[in-house]
Write a structure and sequence with these properties.
- The chain is of the alpha+beta class.
- The strands form 2 sheets. It has a 4-stranded mixed sheet. A two-stranded antiparallel sheet has the order 5-6.
- A hairpin with a 4-residue loop joins strand 3 and strand 4.
- The radius of gyration is 15 Å and the shape is globular.
- It has a domain of 57 residues: 2,3-Dihydroxybiphenyl 1,2-Dioxygenase, domain 1.
- The chain starts with 7 loop residues before the first strand and ends in a 7-residue tail after the last strand.
- It is built from 2 helices and 6 strands, in the order βαβββαββ.
Length: 99
């Protein structure tokens, strides 16, 4: 029996360029593929994708629901590795926590 795992997470965004800046410049993630409509980041065992919301809706053949509650966490080894400042690429980070 195969072990379940997630290989791809896609986030539908209204502004791909702005989201790309947030993840690329804010977290230092390097895209492995990008166009104006989509950006792929290779993560630890999965691919994180930013995709134009309208194109994601077309691919799913249904509208994306209104924004709801969810969380994406990015863990770092130390607070010195967090994005500089609390605002990166026009997106405000809600919190920084150290364990």
């Amino acid at each position: 029996m195969s072990r379940p795992y997630i290989s791809l997470i896609t986030l539908g965004v209204a502004d791909v360029a702005r989201a790309r800046i947030f993840y690329r410049d804010g977290f230092g993630w390097k895209p492995v593929f990008e166009t104006e409509e989509v950006v792929f980041f290779q993560m630890n065992g999965l691919v994180f994708t930013l995709w134009d919301k309208a194109q994601l809706e077309a691919d799913m053949e249904r509208p994306c629901p209104a924004a709801g509650s969810f969380a994406l966490a990015h863990n770092v080894e130390s607070i010195s590795r967090r994005p500089s400042g609390r605002t990166t690429g026009g997106v405000r980070c809600a919190a920084f926590a150290c364990a």
